[in-house]
Each structure stands twice: as C-alpha cells, then as structure tokens.
Amino acid sequence: MEKQLLRLNVNDQNYEIYINPKTLLVEAIRDHIELTGTKRGCDTVSCGACTVVVDDMAVKACSVLAVQAEGTKILTSEGLEVNGKLAPIQKAFLDEGAFQCGFCTSGMLMSSVAFLNETKKPTEKEIRDGIEGNICRCTGYNSIVRAIDSVAKGKYTEDKV
Amino acid sequence: MSLSGPIICPVCGKKAKTGSAIDCARHMFGTGDQPHRKWVEAQGLSFIDLLIEQATTPGNRSYVLLGEIIQKDAEKREAEKK
Amino acid sequence: MNKYTVINPHEPFKVINTHIHNVDGWAKVTGRAAYTFDIKLPGMLYGKILRSPHPHANIRGIDASKALALDGVKAVVTGKDTLGIKQGIWRRYKDLCDEQILPVDKVRYIGEPVAAVAATTEEIAEKALDLIEVDYEVLPAVFEPLDAIKKGAPEIHEGFERNINVTRHIEWGEVEEGFEEAEYIREDWFRCGGQAHMCMETRCAVSSYTPDKKLTIYHSNQSPYYMQGLMAGVLDMREGDIRVVAPYVGGGFGGKFELDGAIFCTAILSMKCYKPVKIVYTREEDFIASKRRTPMFYYTRTGVKKDGTFCAREAKVFTNGGAYTGMGATALYLTGFFHSFPYRWKGYRYDGYRVYTNTLPSTSMRGFGAPQAMWCSEQQIEWIAADLGLDPIEMRRKNSHQEGTILPGQATIASCGIDQCYDEITKWIKGKGKLPANRSIGISACGFMSGGIFNWFDSPYSFSSAVVTINQDGTVELHIGAQEIGQGSNTTMAIICAETLGVKVEDIKVHSGDTDHCPPDLGAWGSRQTLMTGNATKMASENAKKQLLEFAYAQSGLNIVYDLDIKDRWVHAIARPERGEDFVKLVRKALRGKDGQKIVGRGYYTPHRKGMISPAYSYMLQGVEVEVDEETGKITLMDSMTAHDCGQPINHLGLIGQLEGAFSMAAGYGYLEYMPYEDGKLMNPNLVDYKMIRAPEMPPANIAEIDTYEPEGPYGAKEAGEGLTNPTAAAIGNALFHRFGVQMKECPVRPEMVVNALKEKKEKEAAEKK
Q1: Would the N or C end of chain B have less CB density within 10 A of its end CB?
Q2: What DSSP element (H or E) covers C704?
Q3: Could you tell me the pLDDT band of residue C735, with boundaries at 50, 70 and 90?
Q4: Reported ipTM
C-alpha cells in the first residue's frame, strides 16, 4: 500500500511521518515518532498498556489507525511532566508505589489522567471502574486506586502545572 | 478363615497400626521403597498403577485391592505354619 | 480504603522502613524506562518463530527455500543450524537437560519453535513463516499425566519409562507411629490447575553477534547470569564472551529464568547474519509457548488426635510436567516440602512424580509449587476442624511452627511470627461482626522460603555478590547481580547500602542487570534476593565503611575503646555524636591516603549449615471475605486481611505492593485464571478469554505486618511477596465451605463448579430426607 504523509500532534509537538495507512496509532507513536513510553501488551485490545489520551479521552492506541488521529491532540506519558516537573498523578504514583515492573504504568497513567479530567469527585468504585481496561499484573491495583484518589482529593493541587 | 493374630508386613515384619490388612497396605504404599515395591510387583500388580489410582480417585480402591492380597498371603502363610 | 499496621515495630533505623520512593520510579512514571521491548539497534532485523501445530511429531524435513527467496528475508534457521545441545537449568543432572529450543528432529507440544526467520521488517518475517514447508510425521500424543504414565502410552522422551520425568521422596519423623497415634484420619483427593505468568512484557530479546565472536543479548529475564551460562552451553561459547543485559523488565513471576525461544532464536539468527535481531512474542505466543504453573493431582492423608493435635501426614502427587523439565523439577520438590507447612508433624512423608505430557512445559511460578500444596492442605485442615468440631484457627495455632522448630534433616526455624498472625486474623474476623447472609470468611495459613539452597545450576560463584564503590564526592556505586523485575530489589539494595554506610538513598547509584558490569548472582527467584543479595550488599557496604572508619580513627586521636559510626552522612564517635566530620570530607581524605584509589568494598553470600531448603522462612495468614451468587455461582471478593511475618521490613511501600500484588495473583489462581486444554491446545490464549483480577475485582487488602527478627537475614529481613501467592486459593475455598458446606476439590473454582456443587448438595440432602 502507498505510504502517505501524516501530521500528528503528540505532547504539543507536531510530527510529520510517512506511514502505511494501515498503521495503528500505537505503531506510529512507538515506531515512527519513537516515543516508547507507550507499550503494547496484547493483540486483542484488552490490556490497556497502549492507552494514550486523545482530545481528553483515554484511547487504546492499538484500537485506532494513526490516520484517524490526524487533527487531534495526543498526550502520552512522556507529555505529562513539564520542564522536569512531574504532574500530580506521577507524583502520586511515586508516593503510593503504584507501579512495580512499570510496563503497564504509562497506559495506567493515561487512563488515570483522562478519568480524573472527567470525574471530579470519584468514589472508590468509580476509580476502579475507570481503570478496568488496564491490566496490571504486579500491584493488585489498590496502590493505583490510592494514587488516583489522592490526586482527586487535591493532595497535589499546588503541583498542578 | 480368620487369622490368629495381627498382620505383620511380609516385607519388613512391622505391624501397621491396627494390624489389619488394609493398614498393612497403607504402610506398603507409604514406605514405597524398593523391597516393598518388588513385593507388590511380585503379586502381579503394578505399583505405579496402584499409586495413580490412589492419588487420583477417592475410594481407596488400591488399598482395598492390595489389602485383599496381603490378607490372602497372610492366611496362606499361617496355613503353611500349621 | 486499606489498613496497614505494623505490630511490634522496631525503629532504630535511618533509612530502613522509612518512606522511600522506588529508585526506578522516575524512569517508570515518565515513560523513560526502556525495556527490551523498546530496544532498537542500528541495522536491526526482526525475527519471527514458526511453531509446531502438532502436539507430538517427528520433523522429517524443512524446506525454507521459498522463504529465503522472499525480498527482505535475511536468514532462516532450524534445529539443523544449531549444535543440537539439549539444555536445562538443572545442569548438574544431564538427563534433566532435555530441551533443544529449536528441536532437531521432534516436537513435543503445540507452539514449540520449529524454525525462525530474520527479515528487515516484522511483516516480511511473518510472511516468510507461511513459506516455510515442514514435513511432519504426526505421532500419537498424550496430554494428561495420568494417561502418560500408563503402560503403552506414547513415549515422549527416550529412556523415560512411563514418561516419568522426575520423582521426589521427602520423609522425616515417625510417619507410621504418627498415624498410629492418630484418632482421626482424613483422606482427600484434589486437582490444581495451571496458571499463566502473564507478564505484561511478553518474552522478548535482541541479540547482536559481532565478527570478534562476541555476543551481546538484551533479554527480558530474571537472571542474567543464568542466561549467560545457559547460552554459553547451547552455543558452545565461553560465558565471558556473552554479555546479557536485562534492562527494565516487564514482570517475571518465575517465568523468565530459563531459556526461551526469543533469546535462543535471536542469537542463532544473529550469528548467521552478523546483525542485531529482535524477537518479541505476541501475547498468544506468550500464552502457548512460554511456560506455566504446574498442574497437579494431590492425594493427602492426615492423622490428628481428637483434641486437634496433628500427628502425621502423607501425600502422593502427580504433576503435569508438559514436554520438558525446566524448573518443574524444583516445583515438584517444593510442593512436597511446603505441603507440610506451617505445621509440626510427628512424621511427614511425600512422594511426587513429575510426568511428561505433550503440553506446554510447566515450571516455576510465584509460590513455586506451594500454592498447589496449600490449596489442598489448608482446605483439608479446615474440614478436619469441622469434622472434629474444633475451632479451625486455634487448631492451626496449636500445631504451628515456632521459633526453634526443627524439620529433621530439612530446616530449623530461626524466626517465626505466625502466632501473632493468628491474633491479628482473629481480631479482623471479630471486628466484622455478623456477616450478611450471602457472605462468608475463609482463612488459610502458610510459610515460605527466603531463597533456595539449591545449586543444580552448578555455579562455581557465590550465590550473591555485591561491590560498593565510594566516589570522591560521597556518591556510591552499588554493583549487584540481583535482577530488578518490578519487585523492587534495586530499591531494597539501595536502602540496605545507605543504611549500612550511613548515607542517603539518593547517594546510591544501583547497577544491576548486566553480566559485563555486575557480579554474578543467581537472580530473582525463590524470594532469594532480599536475604542473599541483601547480605552481600550489607557485607560489601560494611567492608567499605570499615576502610573509611580506619582513616577516621587514625586522624581522630580517640581512645580505642570508642566506636565510630556514620549516620546521615555524619562520621562520629557513637558516644559523642555531636563531635564528628562530614562524610564527603572524610572520603576525600581517605582517597589521598589510598594513593588516589577509590574505596571498594566487596561482599558475598552463600548459605551454609541452613538445611536443605532455605536459610529462613516467612509466615503468614490470609483471610478473605467472599460473596457468592447462588444462582450463577459468581464469586466476588469483598474484603481481605493479611497477617504477615517477613522479619524486619526493609521498605514498607515495596512490601505493601508485594503483598497486594501477590494477593491478586493468588486470588486469580483461586477462582479466575483457568487454562483449559483440548487435545494439547490451549483454548484461551488471549486476554479476552483468560480471566484475571482487574481493578474492580480487587478487594481492600488490609495488612498487619508482624515485625520479627531473622538472624540469618540482613537487618533481620526475610522473604516477602512470593509466599503470599500460596494461601489465598484455599482461603476462598474455605469461605465457600463455611457458607455452603461444599468442599471444592479443584482450582480454579469456576462458577459452574459452584452451581454444580450446590445442586449436588441439594440432591443429596433431598435423598437423605427420603
């Protein structure tokens, strides 16, 4: 298939890449733009490791074509920090130990960010449902739930960037 | 025919628990060493097959089966003594 | 949300058990951490593996000419391109080295590698696989150990009568006498399922062979040193010519310390074309062709007195070994050992048989045979208590190990906090009051090892080694061979090093995961690193500190009865802490005194005189509150409580994470993670159909940590995080027993099993009424 030029905006940076139109968004981000923080853990849209935020919505980047993301604003885990300053959710993950091997962490962070944007005062159940699409094999999720909860409760308000 | 005394193990001479044939069979499986295995095999049984049966299906059929053979053997030996 | 309490805390520390962020945390929460999965080398090729569709077949011939003709394909390798060396991690025992990663003439399970391709893109490599023609002679296959062991079953490996791969006998004390004293004897039969490790990062490797005959491998694994040794064996190279780098590793859980298709095939391909080659398993490949927890059949017979005193136990076990030995032989041993835990018996006897079948090989997985052992043991004990009308907690308590318990010829228990675990669990249960009608509580006890005293790998090196180097600015380089796989070993070692040297965690730079730069270490398995690498790290740090303090002494003019120490970067006499010197200043002076040589401390650890199994044992109790829908059989976990003794906790943030994580994996084994095979084919090799705990299924995980002191461990520490994979399945089973009176004999417990058990019970009750 003929390669085509695609413009993507990832983490407030414009990129021009030549890709096969069948390229998935996760492949464009990892293999073409070379932001490898976003991972892949399955082939069935089930694990959430590739979750990125597209126009404020959490999207599994293995479930959409890169060309479908043209004209949107994409945020990945690399875009959370600003000038070396961590975002509240990143600090909360550190404080709560909400990661172990770290392979699901980027996707988990992005699901959390999108969830917190949508839900201002979440209950514990809402938090759990909010990250249901992301598998973490290491932590048992509770530390992640605590991290999201502490951000929602405003623990890191002064750190907002 | 009933025996005059408790059954002792035909291999090592131990009396197992109550001295019944089935307890002797348990003892044989428990020990599982070469002499006991050989005795079981000599009765035309497969030690491993009995073990599989015992380890996988409730009912203790292996113990019952081996117990019957031990009982017969003990009876035979008692008859020979007389 | 969760409650974490420490019982009898011990706090003379500056660093240990304070709130320390994971030292790899920054990299992991910013997307910077690069895994093998992310590695891209210049000129790198992409590999794919052709896998056997047959569970058992002879390979008569392979024609790869069409694949080689495809544009972009650079190399195809088959078993014929290898040395054909049969390998295994039990190197001391030749007959247990039974696996060629690319078999030369025979495949033994569906998914076994047959050929591998390297091409310029992954798509081309994939296409090339379709062009490889393999001529198979399909052989009769056998999938269940109890069929494979029958007379006349297909022979899977030559020379193994009845396909019996390994047998294990464990015995101590007076078994027969114990049973004789017993007033009540119970026999039960159980089945335990397999479980997938399901690491988020699938097996993957990048190998680069260069014309100077050196091989560099990036590989997602738990023990770079084992990989180096095993690869040297199969390639007939010197260990020192192979460099294994395990960068950030996306999970291991016991599934990543044997050779896999990715590491082997990339190396062979790279040696053929002198270019780096990368292979990443798809999730399906990871399910069907990595390894799994060992499925087992258990028969266990337990004799007790009417007052609940335990007398004797014997167990007979058959395990489904799958096609090869791997670490499965160790699982066969450990399941038998831990089936006796955590109780005292007058006599204990175990016979285990590992049987080859034409299925995915089974191996070590978090818990290493003990989850199966506890599934059977802890349910049976609950049933015995019910049969005798005894309190199950008090019955367990009076029979449990204590400090000083001796398992003849096997182990001496030097520290044991299980008694207080019973108190904490009882408190939790009492605090619940009356439960709603659809809920019930189950508990389960267990103990686990802190590293194995096994060297079947035949390493001539110490089990663990560490090197501490102090730079002129007071920063510290800690080189360890321990492998960080997410469990937090880098952080643990940084804490131990900082505490010992008297500096801060941010002063320590941890170097691990690279055989070229780190000392050999057996790696991350069997919960060994905190104790073993921890001891080596402590020794190396003490050694470096001693060198520093010698200089401090020399210049202080103090009477030799005074002791010097370093805390918070402050070098001082213990008796007069206010008089001292800054750590960095002292380091600079000491360097001058050493003719400019850096201060280097070395440490090592190999267990001696600690029995057959492990230097130390952790103890724990797990309680779960379970809700069951009687109509559908659906199980929901509502709450949980862990009472846990890991000696001195080193890092409570890491400890909580380990316990919560172990609980989720253990609960999954109890009621969700099912691996059904049909004719040797796994029926659910994907994350849609393979169910596991997700965030909504996870209950609160309350923890009471019993702080004890283990004399063999660094600062009194022992195992945490693997042991807790063991008790939970049985605790769920026990909750079902208390609610319905049904006895679940097979795990994982699926909804239809609950429904059927309830139906059977009703039918039985109806029949009895008549």
Answers
A1: C
A2: strand C701-706
A3: very high
A4: 0.97
- Asked if C132 contacts C75 with a C-beta cutoff of 8 angstroms, the reply is no
CA distance C249 to C513: 9
Q: Which long-range contacts (CB under 8 A, 24 or more apart) does C98-102 make?
A: C98/C157, C98/C324, C98/C325, C99/C259, C99/C323, C99/C324, C99/C325, C99/C326, C99/C361, C101/C234, C101/C259, C101/C260, C101/C261, C101/C264, C101/C265, C102/C77, C102/C78, C102/C264, C102/C265, C102/C268
Residues spanned by the domain of C124: 36-141+213-273
Rounded to 5 degrees, φ, ψ at C686 are -155, 165
C233-268, pLDDT tens digit by residue?
Answer: 999 999 999 999 999 999 999 999 999 999 999 999
Residue C746, helix vs strand vs coil: strand
Q: CA nearest C377: which of C407, C399, C355?
A: C399
Question: Which string of b and e fits A9-46 if b means at least 16 CB within 10 Å?
Answer: ebbeeebebebeeebbbbbbbbbbbebbbbbbbbeeeb
Burial of residue C471, with CB atoms counted within 10 A of its CB: 0-12 exposed, 13-18 middle, 19 or more buried: middle
Establish if C593 belongs to a structural domain. yes
pLDDT category at C472 given cuts 50, 70, 90 is: very high
Distance of alpha carbon C453 from the chain centroid: 15
What CATH number is given for A4-76 in this structure? 3.10.20.30
Chains with 3 or more CB pairs under 8 A to chain A = C
Max Cα distance, chain A (Å): 51
In a domain, C237, yes or no: yes
Q: Is pLDDT of C769 > 90?
A: no
Peptide bond into C519 cis (omega under 30): no
Any CB–CB contact under 8 A between C180 and chain B?
A: yes
Burial degree of C122 (CB within 10 A; 0-12, 13-18, 19+): middle
Q: How far apart are CA C260 and CA C245, in angstroms?
A: 15
CA C583 to chain CA mean position, Å: 39
CATH number, residue C94: 3.90.1170.50
Residue C323 lies in a domain: no
CATH 3.40.50.150 fits A88-154, yes or no: no
Residue carrying the six token digits 């975002």? A87
Distances from the Cα of B53 to the Cα of C150, C357, C453, C735, angstroms: 11, 18, 34, 30
Q: What residues in C contact B44, CB-CB < 8 Å?
A: none
C264 to C215, C227, C259, C419: CA distances (angstroms) = 12, 10, 7, 48
Rounded Cα gap, residues C656 and C215, in angstroms: 39
Q: For residues C231 and C242, is the Cβ–Cβ distance under 8 A?
A: yes
Q: How far apart, in whole angstroms, are the C-alpha atoms of residue C418 and residue B65?
A: 42
Element counts in chain B: helices (H) and strands (E): 4, 0
Please state, rounded to an integer, the average pLDDT across all residues of chain C. Answer: 96
Q: Considering only CB atoms, which residues of chain B are within 8 Å of chain C? A: 14, 16-17, 26-27, 29-30, 32, 46, 48-49, 51-52, 54-58, 60
- Token reading at C434: 């009356």
The answer to whether A4-76 and A88-154 have equal CATH topology is no
Give yes or no for a contact between C227 and C263, defined as CB atoms under 8 angstroms apart.
yes
DSSP A88: H
Closest chain B residue by Cα to residue C298? B55
- How many structural domains are present in chain C? 2
User: Would you kindly state where each structural domain of chain A is located, as residue ranges?
Assistant: 4-76, 88-154
How many C-beta atoms lie closer than 10 Å to residue C475's C-beta?
Answer: 15
The segments of chain A whose pLDDT lies below 50 read 161
> Nearest chain B Cα to C163, which residue?
B48
Q: Which two tokens stand for residue C421?
A: 């675990």
| Any domain includes C706 | no
Q: Of B26, B30, B48, which has the smallest distance from its Cβ to C149's Cβ?
A: B48
